[in-house]
Amino acid sequence: MSEELLNLTLHVWRQNGANDAGRFETHQASDISTHMSFLEMLDVVNEELIEKGEQPIAFDYDCREGICGTCGMVINGMAHGPQKLTTTCQLHMRQFNDGDEIWLEPWRASGFPVIKDLVVDRSALDRIIQAGGYISIRTGSASEANELPVAKEDADKAMDAAECIGCGACVAACPNASASLFTAAKIAHLSLLPQGQAERRDRARKMVAQMDAEGFGGCTNHGECEAACPKGVSLRWIARMNRELVRAMVKADTPIQRRDRAS
Amino acid sequence: MQGALTLHQTTVGKKVIMAVSGFILVGFVIGHLLGNLQLYLGPEAINGYAAKLHSMPPVVWTARLVLLFAVGVHIASAFSLWARNTQARGSRYKQRKDLATDYAARTMYWSGPILLAFIVYHLLHFTILPAHPGDVYRNVVEGFQVPLIAAFYIVGNIALGFHLFHGVYSAFQSLGANHPRYNNYRRDLAIAICAVVTIGDLSFPIAVLAGFVTL
Amino acid sequence: MELRSNEPTGPIEHRWEKHKEASKLVAPANRRKYNIIVVGSGLAGGAAAASLGEMGYNVQCFCYQDSARRAHSIAAQGGINAAKNYQNDGDSVYRLFYDTVKGGDFRSRESNVYRLAELSVNIIDQAVAQGVPFAREYGGLLANRSFGGAQVSRTFYARGQTGQQLLLGAYQALSRQIEAGTVQMHTRTEMLDLIVHEGRARGIVTRCMKTGKIGAHIADMVVLCTGGYGNVFYLSTNAKGCNVTAAWRAHRHGAAFANPCYTQIHPTCIPQAGSYQSKLTLMSESLRNDGRVWVPRKTEDVTKRPEDIPEADRYYYLEERYPAFGNLVPRDVASRNALYVCNEGLGVGPEVDGERRAVYLDFADAINRLGEQTIRERYGNLFEMYERITGDSPYDTPMRIYPATHYTMGGLWVDYNLQTTIPGLFAGGEANFSDHGANRLGASALMQGLADGYFVLPFTVGNYLGEVRTLPPLAEDHPDVKQAVAGVSERIRKLMNAPDPKYPPEHFHRLLGKIIWTKCGMSRNKAGLEEALLEIPRLRDQFWREVKITGEGEELNQTLERAGRIADFFELGELMCLDALEREESCGGHFREEHEENGEALRDDENFSYVAAWEWTGNPAEPRLHKEPLSFEYVKPSKRSYK
Questions:
Q1: Is A259 part of the contact surface with chain B (CB cutoff 8 Å)?
Q2: Which whole-number Å values give the CA distances from C336 to C265, C314, C339, C342, C457, in the listed order?
Q3: How many other C-beta atoms can be found within 10 angstroms of the C-beta atom of residue B6?
């Protein structure tokens, strides 16, 4: 595809720490190749800022191939930008036109305090997994892998749910800043496999309790999370989480403690 | 150390409560519509129906208590979720583009209160302080002949329609029923209930205003 | 420095068992008295931290990413090998061992490789029990595929996201230990130095990347699972954050660095589109099963649209040069030949810095033969990824590909216990040099990371602690600690206050990468390496003089983070060139142009059958070389030929 050069106006959210009010700053991005990735465009802007003696725009990134889940920003009101099933790092500038104004904002959620500019603290998602998003199996004590067959359909569904990269776009896109899709994907993944049955009830209760404790909103079934998810994780897993939780609440003999938001 | 976790304390539980109470209210709304359709059969039919209902106080009061309870927990859960969800965003986006949600879903927090105001008015108008106690037919026709009152009923029922559409579709999700093979039926059902109830309910003020139903 | 491999002797199939039996143990009640630092949370680090925590040790785990789940192990697509022989096609532990030694071009340690093959089966059991959703057959059993030219189907996979799913398995195990309180996780925390006290590794100095705070963490031992150094090339398939700093700081404290010039080049990556390019993306090698590689025969055709070049003017160079293997020649051969045709001016695609560096990978024939639907089923997701990045659809026009650095076989020298030459400092996963020799087989990286993390380190760490029993307490105000902390602060101050600040750190990284890539890449020669050894120190001096970092050190400062890593890449790059220069042979991905026979790599077993372990002397230009001789009792060295 032929290369074109774009001139863009960026309105970038700048914020120095969680206690700063934050503001938009306007920067020009000139002669941007349509073959650049979105983050490469920001790299170019940042190198110019450094050479001018100014502070570069802070944004998270790592693998730049759409799998690590580190990057993410709200671009023109859309988490990860306008292209479907695409992380910010995989978004390319051919999705934009010469003269475009681009608004860049961090994931906005009380559960994700801003560290700097577009960098947010997503450790709440780690704590949701720590609450119970695992199968407790001691290293070395596993039985022979093929001993327990798993229906291909179940394995495939578990894989669908397990594709979540933990980027937090679901939270960013949700009108309620809910982490339901993230939490549900893990609950669903593990509940679909025979290996995950033993801790099924505790897992659902503990993970939901932690999700709530972190200050995320509740799901009100808008579907924005699914639309923003770069991996296409389905809303059906939220329904499954709801089912898992109700079942666990009704069936379990021993109660679960409410959980705190970690500092 | 915190206490034990109960279902209604979780965001998931709150939605489950809203879904269950919502289904009770949807059931009532459908039954209510069916009863009201007797308006078209003339004064004797609908007044007789009303008299028959009122001759069974235990039934009526049980239903009223159940409905009151359903409305109560529905609103309480909604309010608690609303408070929580507003907090959860923190600072607002300067730019925001919705990709999936629809008008009905986005306006639940508007259609809900409008509906509540409408229900309160509706109860005062026809149940608690009727102009002609015992004569339902006359109350309805005289009421709807006042354009302002008819308009309010029309607005209230449109709000009900939107609320029902998202409510019914979404209640299945809240209760854990989402399956790619059956989701189309879910949407069809939501549309059907919403359409029948809205068209049915709107027909009354319109029919009276248009002069199809007179004293 | 003495290199003692500490390999057990006797029949190879009993060595690991025998070694375990002879090793010291730490009683369960005593384990909580020991503090262990694990740096890195990928397959090796995450698995090790989780397993050690579960055993009852006090573990502190560190990663530079914002979550342990983001380590670059996550990006591995293809799969993981295991000698399960589920397909009844004659696979065995011995065969996997044999293939790995041979694939490594006879430059790895047999005992280690055998143990790796042996443990491969346990890894699959462990991962399945953790809920890793491997692909399955309709009968519900695990599915396998053949990978990277292996003659058996021993590769387990989870769609194209095997690395991701295995890493999430380890991450979840780690999360469980964090919840249990046995592991304390430090994210966004970068190790910037090692603390050595009385000859033993006793802690690390870190910088909190959120606040810039420099701090010391003291422990009884340190385990480095910090990945590879492919980013020395600037452009590689590694994540942007991957760096050598932790390993390099250990090296500067006395840990030998082994075979630094052994890097793996992957032939099917998406080529560079412009000078702004920040990384390269790998596509599965399986594409070569159906794609035909070609370039124009005439230099004047390189700017034409590929569709407009007639068949007679297309140079299918792999098919012509290697009629037997054609487009399926091994990685190093495919990569090197792409380099050569581009050097001849036949490269295609956009010009970057005055050169066209790409070749076509054409599916037109395969689409004609098999139909677009079949090709879509086989490669649909790869074609989509290619189109997302380049804007071209491979259904309509040939893909453009070019080799890129993908993995580094070199790393910290370790013995059979994975202990470096510093007592108490262990290295696992890609950070060590141990199992892949001069070339890594496909689907073996995940296997090695997890074998080290789940099954080797938990055991050998216990052996070390059982041997040393109690270490003297080390206080934070001890001169060894204070000096290390002061050194880190001083280095940051120096970086922030270059005398003549002009350019951002990336400017220098790009220049360094270019030198290493052209002169110490897939094809090297003496003259080029000697040039590089003059250029690198010059550029390094310029870097320290002219690097420009804005903002403060005491806050989130990504420019500073990168600058510190680049500074270490300069020293490593020099060592790579020295190592490549010293190794007067061609083996694996390491091709010395002076040592070839009819264009093929010529290994020199007589003189170079050893591990080159380099000791830091204080002068980056004059490291001291130590040789660990390699002997092959089981797999006798043979010649690779693909003609």
A1: yes
A2: 9, 19, 5, 10, 36
A3: 12
**Inter-residue contact C258 to C614 (CB < 8 Å):** yes
Residue of C80, C85, C240, C356 to mutate, interface with A, max A Cβ within 10 Å: C240
The answer to whether residue C106 sits within a structural domain is: no
Q: Do residues C80 and C155 make contact, with C-beta atoms less than 8 angstroms apart?
A: yes
- How far apart are the C-alpha atoms of C109 and C590, rounded to whole Å? 18
Residue C72 · residue C42 · CB < 8 Å: yes
CB contact under 8 A, B12 and A221: no
A177 CB neighbours in chain B (<8 A) are: 85, 88-90
C-alpha span between C613 and C259 (Å, rounded): 6
> Any idea which of A69-78, A183-192, C323-332 has the lowest mean pLDDT?
C323-332
Residues B194, B102: Cα–Cα separation, whole Å: 15
pLDDT in tens, C208-250: 999 999 999 999 999 999 999 999 999 999 999 999 999 999 9
DSSP-assigned letters across all residues of A27-59: EEEEEEETTSBHHHHHHHHHHHHHHTTPPPPP-
CA torsion sign for B65, B68, B72, B75 is positive
Domain boundary among C405, C426, C458: C405
**Cβ-Cβ contacts under 8 Å, C235 against chain A:** none
- For C552-573, write each residue's pLDDT tens digit: 999 999 999 999 999 999 999 9
Whether residue B127 is predicted with pLDDT greater than 70 in this model: the reply is: yes
Banded pLDDT at C36 (limits 50, 70, 90): very high
- Give me the residue label for tokens 């581009």: C342
Q: What is the DSSP letter of C40?
A: -
User: Would the pTM count as exceeding 0.95?
Assistant: yes
Structural domain containing residue B80: 9-91+101-210
**What is the predicted pLDDT for the residue at A2?**
78
Say how far apart CA C575 and CA C582 lie, in whole Å: 10
Cα(C116)–Cα(C443) distance, rounded to whole angstroms? 13
Q: What is the DSSP letter of A67?
A: -
Write down which chains contact chain B via at least 3 CB pairs under 8 A: A
**AA identity, residue B37:** L
Query: Do A and C share at least 3 CB pairs under 8 Å?
Result: yes
CA distance A257 to chain B (A): 4
Residue A246 one-letter amino acid: V
At B129-138, the pLDDT tens digits run 999 998 999 9
Is B156 inside a domain boundary?
Answer: yes
B with C: touching (≥3 Cβ pairs within 8 Å): no
Count of structural domains within chain B: 1
Residues C412 and C257: beta-carbon distance below 8 Å: yes
Domains of chain A in sequence order = 5-116 (3.10.20.30), 123-251 (1.10.1060.10)
Inter-chain CB proximity A51 and C548 less than 8 Å = yes
To the nearest 10°, report the CA torsion of C127, C132, C134, C139: 90
Domain count, chain C: 2
